[in-house]
């Protein structure tokens, strides 16, 4: 069955994601002690790694090899890392990519087949894990974006852009949707044809980074971070 954006399964997946994020953050804030934090962090890491493992395992098994070259894949790996080894500098790209890209992907998912197709599970497991990990890192581990974070992550994003373009050229893939737009409706539909929409991605990405940085910027001005 073809996946329908904001259909029953999509709404159910979004609801379960929101409930999981709320539960894991509430548990982390309520249960004190390093042991509880480690257990909850590893729970989120397992969700992320399960999504990634199923995704790439299935692709290779079905004869369609793929690589962790989507921006959400990079965000997932960084999020898993900071959950085990908290680090503000590593948190910054995980936060901006996770909230700016992965969260947006949950809202307008590029999923072709509906529940119970395995790709439905891998998509929502991976993206749910990233969003949960970012929120947990902020509200439980107290990680934050430092001054200049937007500039640093925007520069790092250019490295991702270059790497994805090279891999797309070599493998004929569409990582980062830099070769063509996703088949499902997305923000890219309003940014013109290829390759001009890539410039639009850059501009919107920077604006989104600035917006996402606002809470941390305000906290810094107040001396809270």
What report would you give on this structure?
The structure is a single chain. The protein is mainly alpha-helical and 225 residues long. The protein has one domain (8-222). It is built from seven helices and no strands. It has helices at residues 8-30, 34-61, 71-84, 88-107, 118-139, 149-171, 196-222. α1 runs parallel beside α5 (118-139) and α4 (88-107) crosses α5. The longest helix is centred in the first third of the chain and has 28 residues, at 34-61. The protein starts with 7 loop residues before the first helix and ends with a helix. The model has no long low-confidence stretch (mean pLDDT 91).
Note the main attributes of this structure:
225 residues; mainly alpha; 7 helices; globular
SSE layout and pairing:
Blueprint: H1 8-30, H2 34-61, H3 71-84, H4 88-107, H5 118-139, H6 149-171, H7 196-222
Helix pairs in contact: 1-5, 2-3, 2-5, 3-4, 3-5, 4-5, 4-6
Tally of individual domains: 1
Number of strands: 0
Helix content: 55-70%
Assembly level: single chain
Alpha carbon gap, first and last residue:
48 Å
Name the structural class: mainly alpha
- Give the overall form: globular
Query: Approximately what portion of the residues adopt beta-strand conformation?
Result: under 5%
Q: Over all CA atoms, what is the radius of gyration?
A: 17 Å
String of helices and strands: HHHHHHH
Mean pLDDT: 91
| Poorly predicted ranges | none
């Amino acid at each position: 069955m073809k996946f329908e954006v904001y259909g029953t399964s999509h709404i159910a997946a979004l609801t379960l994601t929101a409930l999981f994020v709320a539960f894991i953050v509430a548990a982390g804030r309520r249960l004190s002690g390093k042991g509880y934090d480690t257990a909850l962090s590893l729970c989120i890491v397992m969700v992320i790694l399960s999504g990634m493992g199923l995704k790439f395992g299935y692709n290779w098994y079905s004869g369609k090899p793929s690589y962790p070259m989507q921006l959400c894949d990079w965000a997932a790996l960084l999020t898993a890392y900071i959950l085990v080894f908290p680090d503000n500098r590593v948190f910054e790209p995980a936060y901006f990519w996770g909230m700016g890209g992965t969260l947006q992907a949950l809202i307008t998912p590029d999923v072709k087949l509906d529940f119970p197709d395995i790709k439905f599970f891998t998509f929502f497991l991976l993206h749910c894990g990233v969003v949960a990990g970012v929120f947990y890192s902020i509200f439980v581990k107290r990680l934050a974006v430092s001054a200049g974070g937007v500039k640093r992550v925007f520069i790092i994003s250019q490295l991702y852009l270059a790497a994805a373009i090279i891999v797309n050229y070599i493998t004929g893939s569409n990582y980062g949707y830099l070769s063509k737009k996703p088949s499902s409706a997305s923000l890219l539909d309003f940014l013109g044809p290829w390759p001009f929409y890539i410039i639009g991605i850059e501009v919107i990405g920077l604006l989104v980074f600035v917006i996402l940085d606002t809470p941390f910027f305000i906290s810094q001005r107040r001396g809270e971070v």
